[in-house]
């Protein structure tokens, strides 16, 4: 184990490529453009994933670098969770001031379990569906799954698949859907501002940007509610996943797969 860690830190090719990608993507910066009432946000993380994926199919990245990069993902997520933990304490007064509506909105994120899990099982996914559907699969949730199941587990592959998908398409989707729904439905725009705070800064920025573009007279209120909602999701979302989301997903998965296997045996017997 010690030798493996030594080899990991001495993999200068991997560290050099990662540094080059970071410098390049940060130089490109953040760009956005509007599509109707929606805003599409292009972030450095998106460029980094695309460039890294492209380099994997070149001679620059070998299997050694790919294997060595796996534990670094866990390390990076661990540092992020530590940062979130530091944020939670000073932000408690803001969370209390946000009121019951914002506190209860976290339960809405559990809808991913009841809607997405049955679909995933119907599509034939196994335990990958637990990692994919227990939450919106942002950084704290990735850390939770990595800690409990490991990076190479089915659950780990599931949560990473949704994390990457959300990074590539999440901000685009949130930016478009919030603007379209806010302008097409009679609901208060502040309700969409609250819904945009799911624990992802990029998705919140895209969604609130669309709302501000559609309702410029409410800019301050939209940004305030979106920020408070996102802060709550970052502060309480991980605990919601630990104590409710993940256990509930595992229980429902066991029930659904048991019924599915029972019905299959009955059909074969008939």
From TrEMBL:
Transmembrane segments: 12-33, 39-60, 72-95, 107-125, 161-184, 190-215, 222-246
Family matches, as Pfam families: DUF3100
InterPro entries: DUF3100
Source species of the chain: Halobacillus kuroshimensis
Keywords noted in UniProt: Membrane, Transmembrane, Transmembrane helix
Entry protein name: DUF3100 domain-containing protein
Upper lineage: Bacteria, Bacillati, Bacillota, Bacilli, Bacillales
UniProt keyword Signal present: no
